[in-house]
């Protein structure tokens, strides 16, 4: 079952029921907090890495890998990785206003992460560590208005933990998916690819 970001407000279920969209499949936390956040980049943790873009889409039509279209496809994958990098910075700091997200995301993707940032601030949490990505370009439509790209990923958050913003004590929920399939839809505005939507599979791992 594919699901877009699901947000639970602190006032609705209390801090122990907070959900960070696209990270947690189940959220039954012990202790004081349950929301997820991206950690401050660390030199000791691996950066997000991309796999080689796939040669075909799910329907069998080729995804360009060379020439101008190939460059567009590579740019979309790079933008997706940049989005995770900036989230790691923004959601990893308790003093962040989230404005840097505007350089990489728009629409639902921006809104969902911004709301998650607010939830984390309210809960006194940050994310520590770093997620790992394995993006694969699945489709590219440069004739659309705006041009659109779709990226499939197996997101690994096993080294990405929510923690107390002051003490950095880990406050992960008791149950969560550590690896799950996800899909990002990107739109191109001018020369820039922006993540417009992000969905994840809530019933399986990868």
TrEMBL record:
Residues 1-25 form the signal peptide. Residues 40-62 have a biased composition (Low complexity). Keywords: Signal. It comes from the Bacteria. Residues 35-72 are annotated as: Disordered. This is Secreted protein. It comes from Kitasatospora phosalacinea.
């Amino acid at each position: 079952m594919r699901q877009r970001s699901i947000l639970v407000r602190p006032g609705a279920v209390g801090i122990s029921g907070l959900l960070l969209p696209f990270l947690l499949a189940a959220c039954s936390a012990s202790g004081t907090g349950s929301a997820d956040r991206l950690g401050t980049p660390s030199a000791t943790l691996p950066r997000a890495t991309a796999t080689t873009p796939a040669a075909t889409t799910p329907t069998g039509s080729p995804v360009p890998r060379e020439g101008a279209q190939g460059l567009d496809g590579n740019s979309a994958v790079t933008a997706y990785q940049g989005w995770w990098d900036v989230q790691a910075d923004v959601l990893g700091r308790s003093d962040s206003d989230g404005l840097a997200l505007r350089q990489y995301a728009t629409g639902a993707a921006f809104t969902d992460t911004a709301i998650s940032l607010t939830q984390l601030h309210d809960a006194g949490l940050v994310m520590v560590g770093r997620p790992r990505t394995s993006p694969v370009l699945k489709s590219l439509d440069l004739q659309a208005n705006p041009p659109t790209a779709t990226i499939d990923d197996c997101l690994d958050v096993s080294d990405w933990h929510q923690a107390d913003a002051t003490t950095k004590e880990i406050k992960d929920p008791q149950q969560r998916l550590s690896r799950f399939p996800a899909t990002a839809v990107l739109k191109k505005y001018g020369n820039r690819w922006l993540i417009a939507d992000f969905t994840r599979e809530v019933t399986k791992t990868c």
